[in-house]
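Ticket #4471: structure output looks truncated?

Reporter: J.K.
Steps to reproduce: submitted the chain below (298 residues) through the standard prediction queue, then opened the result file.
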Amino acid sequence: MNGQEADVLISTLVPQGCIKLYELWHEAVRFVAVEENNKKSIYDEVDEPYFPDTSDMGNGPLEGRILTKRLLRHFLYSARSGTPRDLLQRIFDRVLHFTYDGPDAQQAASVNRILDMIYEQRHFGYRGKDKVDIAWEYVSPELFAEFCGFFDDAISVNKVAAVIWLFEQGYSHERDVKGLSKELVKRILAAQAATIQDAQSAQSTKNTAKRPAKPTPAPIIVYRVLWEGREPATVVEAMREEKYIDAVIAHVLFHWCELTNKTEIGRLLIKDEKESSTYLHHVDKLLKKAASLTIVPD
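Returned output as attached by the reporter:
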């Protein structure tokens, strides 16, 4: 896809609530903040992670470019206020890890160029002939273009909705691309075809006494950012914030986070004090329900 086609895809998915512009950036800032706080003793002051306010923002392409400027200005101010480059490097590297499947040397070099320019231009703002305004601050066109490219690649898109739209537009799915393996595409399209077939079957038999078959549910995508490398309690909290049902959470904990103690999973999900057998039976029921669902990692 070229840039124009990507903009059309984003514009199409925005009304469906399938675009998240800044999820990976917010997660990276929180992740690094937790790491830093864990280094402190109970007697040290604990730092709360800061992230630019986005409460007034939507998720459209225009808002995306406004947010790009807010983020760049945030990192420029962080560098100006003495934030070590190493800390910003970890935030960028975290986004890099989740944006690309196995970042290559060129993508890593892009991060270093962005950070080099941020720290070069942090003191008095950029004063070159050609410059870009980022909310009463100025940066070089080179820094802005490089950061925009990195930001755009880090936009989170609902993969099920994206695959279905791309398929309907006639795009080929015969090779792996960033974030979309051929295997995942085939599973999504197979589930979509089954749903359409069931709907057509139900429509053809609606005037008969036979009850139409239930449509096959679409795959449930669980983004790695919610569970990979996280503690079980944090996984539960993050997935509940994203409105996943407990059956899916139990499946992720048991199969992907390798928490095989069902009693412990029950304690995390129920919270209230119960008999160990109650936790165990509850999780058995959840895992049985999850077995009837198609749950895939992003």
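Triage note (M.O.): checked the attachment and the full token line is present. The two ends are 20 Å apart (CA to CA).
Status: closed, working as intended.
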